[in-house]
Design a protein that fits this description.
Blueprint: E1 10-17, E2 20-25, E3 31-38, E4 41-48, E5 51-58, E6 61-63, E7 67-68, E8 72-87, E9 95-109, E10 115-123, E11 126-133, E12 142-147, E13 150-153, E14 158-161, E15 175-178, E16 189-192, E17 198-204, E18 212-216, E19 221-226, E20 235-237, E21 241-242, E22 245-251, H1 254-258, H2 262-265, E23 281-286, H3 288-292, H4 307-319, E24 324-327, H5 356-366, E25 369-375, H6 380-397, E26 401-405, H7 420-435, E27 439-442, E28 458-461, H8 469-472, H9 523-532, E29 537-539, H10 544-548, H11 551-559, E30 564-573, E31 577-584, E32 590-596, E33 601-606, E34 616-623, E35 636-643, E36 648-653, E37 658-665
Parallel strand pairs: 23-24, 23-29, 24-25, 25-26, 26-27, 27-28
Antiparallel strand pairs: 1-8, 2-3, 3-4, 4-5, 5-13, 6-7, 6-12, 8-9, 9-10, 10-11, 11-21, 11-22, 12-20, 13-19, 14-15, 14-16, 16-17, 17-22, 18-19, 30-31, 31-32, 32-37, 33-36, 34-35, 34-37
Helix pairs in contact: 4-5, 6-7
């Protein structure tokens, strides 16, 4: 029998059978989910705009003593519709519509009577589903040994991905290949069909569960692969419990995929009742110095985190109106091979040349906040033993934001960064930070699955190769086209602390540059990243003397906001180019960032995204004459024209270049 399309708010249907077939469509009927239960085995397939995207695919979990992927009786079905709008306290899109059709299936295992529910939400632009185990005696202290969820793609799509189970966490260059050529891959796993449709497989609301990776089963069949504990267990829990949502996001263009908010919608509403203390901004820091090798994290003659140098940075930060100063290396434990110092870091004891109370007071007198830093080097037990005192200290001296770090391949003697052990840890730290009204910027993180909706103090994170690779990576740094891939892979669901703002692209301050490291694009490209790669906390990462040496470029960085009302992506091709426009949340102004790979290109853009009836002064920061990322990266031209919603601009981008535009409303 077929389930009728959902036309009412809620409905129930009792089944009590091992065989079933049903259809449920999204509100606009573009997305269609078919559910089948054959001889007790649940399966699903999914279509968009009349075309099958996912062929019949298995569902279920296998526990240490029971298989909940077969031998199931479907007892009950509940259906409902939801159409609400919620507001982000900060973000790339202020108001987000949450509109879906839901079906919830209640199963019982034949013979042993374990209960499992599967919930599907069908959106106009994708699908989310999760598993749920209600409270029951048979599932106390259980271990999940495998997840059999499949994503059987109908074609061998082009994909962009990084391999799972590698050292160095997520910090790898993206591969581009057909699905048939992938190994086990991290999510978000991005695909493009030969017809031009864009897809992403990921997960939402990852809480007290193992991270999901994607395994290649051949014949375009992909399967969920849970990152294990070091003994091989996948998930340890007791009912009631539930999995994260497994998600398939759809975009008719690359830009549509980038502005798909399905993953955010599948997270719980905010648990912070009054988020007024959470704010966005730009920051400088004692950080780039160490990557260049001009200062050190550890103590000694070249120690970066001194009271004197921090005050100098605070003076610079106040002069240019930025939010705060990040200070790394202030606390004891950095001497020697700090990446191996996991058990000796103190998170409350300063080096003698750094007075945390004095620098915090000095910053406050200038309107500049000290941004804290906790590097654990994967010493989780050491950190958890001190974190309450550490947050108490920061709260007492007025630190509002903390950057955390987890450098190391494994934690606690062999646990992955992506397994349940660390998922629990990262979430616990976010909650503790919220209790102290502290915002977080997490490096070496768990991937984002949209928890910033639930815990909006989880501001931004790394989780990919960032700017620092340009300073010291043995391969010379991030390739020219890298930043044209990131927004459509790693950046699909989360702000990314890429740390833009390097103006000395050839790294002339680096004492020895034996790897010929540099930033592989033009200065205009670097400016455009403030719009293209979203983060509510954007770094202005270069040394003050290099920033002030290029006042035109610095002018843009000072002007571009960090909190947006809306985001649009007029044109983009993954790995080729991207043009992103965002409207400031607090004014009528719009900001544009355009970047290209090693190919120079022009893009004609109509400005219909601007408000009708308003005239704008468009100030463009674009590649200057003969600019080229390889041979001449510095030419930058500033030009101002008057435009409105009926105007068209030609965006000229040099090889490896870009363009940044401020559209300032003048009437």
């Amino acid at each position: 029998m077929m389930l009728p399309l959902v036309t009412t708010c809620t409905s129930k249907q009792r089944i009590g059978e091992m065989n079933y077939g049903g259809l449920i469509e999204s509100p606009n009927k573009k997305s269609a989910l078919t559910i089948e239960v054959e001889e007790g085995k649940p399966m699903y397939h999914f279509s968009y705009d009349g075309k099958v995207l996912i062929a019949p695919s298995r569902l279920g979990m296998i526990f240490n003593d029971v298989d909940l992927s077969e031998g199931l009786t479907l007892d009950l079905i509940k259906t409902s519709e939801t159409d609400t709008t919620w507001t982000q306290p900060w973000g790339e899109q202020k108001d987000i519509r949450n509109n879906y059709s839901e079906i919830k299936l209640f199963f019982t295992k034949n013979g042993s009577s374990e209960k499992m529910n599967i919930i599907f939400r069908v959106f106009d632009d994708g699908l989310g589903f999760r598993y749920e185990w209600p409270r029951q005696k048979n599932l106390q202290n259980f271990v999940i040994t495998d997840e059999v969820t499949e994503f059987n793609m109908v074609d061998d799509h082009t994909s962009w991905w990084i391999g799972a189970y590698q050292m160095n966490r997520y910090e790898h260059l993206f591969n581009k290949s057909r699905i048939s050529e992938i190994d086990t891959a991290h999510t978000p796993f991005t695909m493009k069909t030969d017809e031009g449709l864009h897809l992403s497989i990921h997960e939402a609301a990852l809480t007290d569960f193992a991270s999901m990776t994607i395994a290649n089963n051949g014949n375009n069949s992909l399967e969920a692969d849970l990152v294990p504990w070091k003994n091989g267990d996948k998930v340890r829990a007791s009912a009631p419990h539930r999995s994260p949502w497994r998600t398939i996001s759809i975009g008719e263009t690359a830009g549509d995929l980038m502005t798909n908010y399905l993953v955010l919608n599948l997270n719980e509403p905010s648990k912070i009742k009054d988020p007024s203390w959470i704010k966005t901004g730009k920051y400088t820091g004692i950080w780039w110095d160490m990557h260049l090798g001009t200062k050190t994290w550890g103590s000694g003659e070249d120690h970066g985190a001194t009271t004197e140098y921090t005050k100098e940075l605070m003076d610079f930060t106040a002069k240019h109106g930025f939010y705060g100063v990040l200070v790394e290396g202030w606390n004891t434990g950095w001497d020697g091979d700090w990446a191996a110092n996991s058990d000796i870091f103190s998170f409350t004891e300063s080096y003698p040349d750094f007075d945390i109370e004095e620098v915090a007071r000095y910053g406050d007198s200038l309107g500049v906040k000290l941004i804290g830093h906790h590097e654990t080097s994967t010493g989780i037990s050491n950190y958890e033993a001190q974190v309450d005192d550490a947050f108490d200290l920061y709260e007492r001296v007025g630190v509002e934001a903390v950057k955390t770090g987890y450098v190391g391949d494994f934690v606690e003697g062999g646990e992955w960064h992506h397994g349940q052990f660390m998922v629990q840890h990262y979430r616990d730290i976010v909650k503790k930070a919220a209790e102290h009204k502290i915002m977080l910027n997490v490096h070496e993180p768990i991937k984002d699955t949209g928890i910033r909706r639930t815990w909006p103090n989880m501001m931004t994170r790394e989780g990919a190769r960032g700017q620092e690779y340009n300073a010291w990576s043995v391969d010379g740094g991030n390739p020219v086209g890298y930043t044209t891939v990131v927004p459509f892979t790693r950046g699909l669901v989360s702000p990314f602390d890429y740390t833009p703002g390097v103006f000395d692209l050839l790294l002339s301050d680096k004492p020895e540059n034996q790897n010929n490291n540099r930033v592989h694009h033009t200065i205009a490209h670097e400016l455009a990243l403030y719009v293209v790669i979203y983060s509510p906390l954007q770094m202005v990462s270069d040394l003050p003397k290099n920033l002030e040496a290029r006042p035109t470029a610095l002018e843009w960085v000072k002007a571009v906001p960090t909190d947006w009302e809306t985001t649009k992506v007029p044109v983009a091709e993954i790995g080729e180019f991207a043009v992103v426009v965002r409207k400031d949340r607090n004014t009528e102004n719009w900001y544009l960032g355009g970047i290209t790979n090693e190919k120079a290109r022009n893009a004609e853009l109509d400005l219909s995204f601007l408000a009708e009836g308003i005239t704008y002064e468009a100030t463009m920061y674009r590649d200057g004459e003969e600019a080229n990322w390889l041979t001449n990266p510095y030419p930058l031209e500033k030009k101002t024209v008057t435009v409105d919603a009926n105007s068209t601009l030609v965006l000229e981008m040099a090889a490896g270049g870009g363009i940044a535009i401020e559209f300032k409303a003048v009437n």
